[in-house]
Write a structure and sequence with these properties.
single chain; about 100 residues; alpha+beta; about 30% helix
Length: about 100
Amino acid sequence: MALQHDGWKRAILEELDALHQNQTWTLVPREPYMNVAGSKWVFKAKLTANGTFDRLKARLVAKGYHQVDGVDYTETFSPVIKLGTIRLVLSLTLVHQWDIR
């Protein structure tokens, strides 16, 4: 079981620290009409580009498939962007001599 392995425990603590530092959620009092979303841990061994072991990664994910927009949540946020996209936009701004704001 993953929770008995020191490496996975460390990965879980790193994920929880990141979630708290980024203020990912706000705890609110539970009301009778609210559905509580469950969560689960997803574990993955990350590899380097040449296929060697890099680190263990744990991710806490919500089981959001039972949630209703406007009832259980009011907004979504996904802070995901690929480095290649940033490079492309910066390259275009340089080529076209656009201002970066």
